[in-house]
Amino acid sequence: MSKTSLKRVVTLPYLVFYGAGNIIGAGIYVLIGKIAQISGYYAPFSFLLACIAVLFTALCYAELAARYPYASAEAYYLERAFSLSNISTLVGLVIIITGILSSSAIISGFYGYLKPLVDIGELATEFLIMLFLTGVAVWGVKESVTLTALFTLIEIFGLLLIIFYGFVSIDVTNISFEHYIPPLKIDVWINIALGSFLAFYAFIGFEDIVKLSEEVVDVQKTMPRAIIITLILVTLLYILVTFVSIITLDPQTLGESDAPLDEVFKKLTGDKHHILGIIALFAIVNGVLVQIIMVSRMLYGLAKQRVFPKFLATIHPATQTPIYATLITGFFILLFAYFIDLVKLAELTSYGIFIVFILINIALIKIKKKEPNFSGFKVPLFIPYIAIFINATLLLLKLFWDLLKIGT
């Protein structure tokens, strides 16, 4: 095992951009239409409910990261809580597989956006992009998070364009805001809740922030702040963009579009160019780079705990990055993008997300009782209990929904 350690160079602004880039990703550019189709003109409330649902688990992650600032994150938390290496290893594997599969699915969609501009073939496109992103991840963590910060700014710029042109182009004085405020009717709020279930996926990614714990400056203070600030920032952007979108295009039209925000932008500006489609390319690249960093740190952390082969914990002396873990991560993302039908696998791994969240919240309860004297960032004991209830409910709803689809 290498004696060289990871470099602590990541500060709060970089961490917030890293987290926001991971959460926003390419998802909002597609999901917003599907959510509007379910929740109708009340879609902003679906995003608000989803944020509240995610917030409880995010606060639990913030305390655990402050208590145990290690790259293996969830695997270490569970080991600390239950002293069962098999459970922590299994959860670590689920997180690694989920990260690789989601990255493979994202990178597979890159070619579709690039083809109208430059067509060098799908295989060549994916290979060159993965070669570039893996090289950046090996180069250094500061360089990587700097690039993710830049790409995140581009993603946010795309959303701000929608917001800006929305409020400039739309005559707010002629809008009946009562039309967008849901009444106290059960059927309306059921649709809002169903929309929030889908919107929940637009917030996934906050948990990957903690994988950088060993590379963050003043981690016990910086990490909790970064998680909370990131969620607030992303939620505000989502709600404003959704509000503008449902005013510009009716929810059904949004839901039927493959590029809903691109359609909104063209309607607002009359521009025929696919500006938001180009921005989506940066969102895709950013999402994959963030996942490469996350998965490689998880591999490194588990190898450091002697769960995985020790060569995966090797740190390059010049770049101070986990070189072999990063190269293997890039290889498997590319491999799955080439050869595996990811749709079914991606659906199955979504169950893993909820199971991991439930286990992490249980772990925090156990740790708070075992080690009550921690003086850093702490949340009240009722927070993980509420988080368990929310995630268990969402898990059961997803199971019911999937069984219903199979039955029909």
What key attributes describe this structure?
408 residues, mainly alpha, Amino acid/polyamine transporter I, 0% strand
Brief characterization of the structure:
This protein is an all-alpha fold. It contains 16 helices and no strands.
Low-confidence stretches: none
Task: Assign an overall shape.
Answer: globular
- By DSSP, the count of extended strands is 0
- Beta strand %: under 5%
Q: Whole-number average pLDDT?
A: 84
The CATH topology corresponds to Amino acid/polyamine transporter I
Going by CATH, the architecture would be: Up-down Bundle
By DSSP (H or I, 4+ residues per run), the number of helices equals: 16
| Topology pattern, helix = H, strand = E | HHHHHHHHHHHHHHHH
Q: Compute the gyration radius: what is it?
A: 21 Å
Report the span from N to C terminus: 53 Å
Major sheet? none
Output the CATH class name. Mainly Alpha
Q: CATH homologous superfamily, by name?
A: Amino acid/polyamine transporter I
Structural class: mainly alpha
Question: Which percent bin holds the helix content?
Answer: over 70%
Structural domain tally: 1
Membrane topology: Multi-pass membrane protein
GO molecular function: amino acid transmembrane transporter activity
Transmembrane segments: 12-32, 44-66, 87-111, 123-141, 148-168, 188-206, 226-247, 275-300, 321-342, 348-367, 379-401
GO cellular component, one term: membrane
